[in-house]
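Milestone 3.1: sequence recovery, worked example.
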């Protein structure tokens, strides 16, 4: 997943995080926790097979880190009573369209895509969580609240962007970037089993806590998906699919979104986005 260097400091999402801070103690205790009995969680370990993830020359393999966190998350959620489906459970390449099709074949499901970030600048670091549809915001907020809160990394906020797996999924869907593997300290942490376990447990806490966040959001106007701006669209289907399969409609969409960007892409973002699937 490419790093984003547009530098948006999202006031709205900061507010939300602050708001969730008060929620976690006051509201979460009162609200019935999601038992998980009726919910399917589709866990999507980013990349796999020949798609290693990250940037060229990156020493820590993103695909291995995402799979390990995904498998730990699977165990954690299954222990909480969730039905868990993995888009991949081994080192294989799964096209983005297949990942989406798996997600969309379950009703009453949520989709959690796990990635690690990368950048040419080794100093880049932090946790960021993406969503696209309005119905995905509570899940994104809850997952981000726990992961960013549980990690020593900086908080890069909840962000809205049209990544393929977020745009095409018909169920609440989030993509969490669990830190930068090109950042020496974050890469060192990611390579420890205890930290990957911690990440899995924090993501699980977000999944379990999403209902109380959702009910709180409907009765307040602290944050809506409209208050978090859509970030410039990056078409990640280029890697997995031939250009000929892209429809005119999606091409127009991406053109329009690119035009709506008020800032030029930073050099890192440009370098990272051209050959990445997300
Ligand atoms: Zn990735």
């Amino acid at each position: 997943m490419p790093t984003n260097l547009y530098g948006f400091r999202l006031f709205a999402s900061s507010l939300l995080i602050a708001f969730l801070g008060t929620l976690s103690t006051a509201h979460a205790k009162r609200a019935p926790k999601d038992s998980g009995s009726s919910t399917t969680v589709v866990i999507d370990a980013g990349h796999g097979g020949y798609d290693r993830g990250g940037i060229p020359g990156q020493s820590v393999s993103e695909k291995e880190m995402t799979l390990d966190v995904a498998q730990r998350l699977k165990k954690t959620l299954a222990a909480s009573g969730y039905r868990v489906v993995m888009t991949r459970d081994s080192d294989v390449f799964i096209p983005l369209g297949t990942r989406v099709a798996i997600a969309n074949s379950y009703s009453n499901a949520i989709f959690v895509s796990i990635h690690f970030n990368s950048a040419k600048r080794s100093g880049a670091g932090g946790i960021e969580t993406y969503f696209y549809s309005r119905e995905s915001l509570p899940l994104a907020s809850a997952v981000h609240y726990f992961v960013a809160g549980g990690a020593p990394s900086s908080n890069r906020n909840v962000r809205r962007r049209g990544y393929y797996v977020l745009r095409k999924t018909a169920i609440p869907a989030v993509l969490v970037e669990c830190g930068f593997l090109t950042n020496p300290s974050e890469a060192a942490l990611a390579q420890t089993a205890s930290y990957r376990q911690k990440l899995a447990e924090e993501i699980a806490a977000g999944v379990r806590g999403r209902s109380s966040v959702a009910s709180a959001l409907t009765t307040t106007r602290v944050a809506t998906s409209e208050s978090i701006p859509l970030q410039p669209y990056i078409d990640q289907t280029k890697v997995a699919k031939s250009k000929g399969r892209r429809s005119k409609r999606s091409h127009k969409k991406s053109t329009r979104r690119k035009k709506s960007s008020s800032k030029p892409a930073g050099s890192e973002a440009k370098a990272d986005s051209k050959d990445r699937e997300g």
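The chain has a mean pLDDT of 77. Residues 1, 46-47, 53, 62, 115, 278 surround zinc ion (CB under 6 Å).
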